[in-house]
Design a protein that fits this description.
Layout (H helix, E strand, L loop, with lengths): L1 E6 L2 E4 L4 E9 L5 E7 L5 E8 L5 E3 L7 E6 L4 E6 L8 E8 L7 E2 L3 E6 L1
Parallel strand pairs: 2-11
Antiparallel strand pairs: 1-3, 3-8, 4-5, 4-9, 5-6, 7-8, 9-10, 9-11
């Protein structure tokens, strides 16, 4: 079982940066950690992922070069550094976790990110 708690959202202007945090508890070492987002009136979309034991990462095309996913092993925390934010990045951001090859079974409560133009 994995528990996830996000933090770090807020209201910023276009071009600004934010860092989201996802504190994980439970047995996460072999898990894949991910960030998703859901904008008003849209479905939830993949943003980035990080495989805890290998360090491999993946990003959605829309955030490549602007967002970076990273971890702090000691704190069991995964971060999403978001730079050059755009109004289109406005969404509720969710942290998620899954076993390799499985579905995204564990979700955080979400944190709101609003980017004004």
């Amino acid at each position: 079982q994995v528990q996830l708690v996000e933090s770090g959202g807020g209201l910023v202007q276009a071009g600004a940066s934010l860092r989201l945090s996802c504190a994980a508890s439970g047995r996460t070492f072999y898990y894949v950690m991910g960030w998703f987002r859901q904008a008003p009136g849209k479905g939830r979309e993949f943003v980035a992922s990080f495989t805890w034991n290998t360090g491999s990462t993946a990003y959605a095309d829309s955030v490549k070069g602007r967002f970076t996913i990273s971890r702090d092993n000691a704190k069991k925390t995964v971060y999403l550094q978001m730079n050059s934010l755009k109004p289109d990045d406005t969404a509720v951001y969710y942290c998620a976790a899954k076993s390799p090859g499985a579905g995204w079974d564990f979700w955080g409560q979400g944190t709101q990110v609003t980017v004004s133009s």
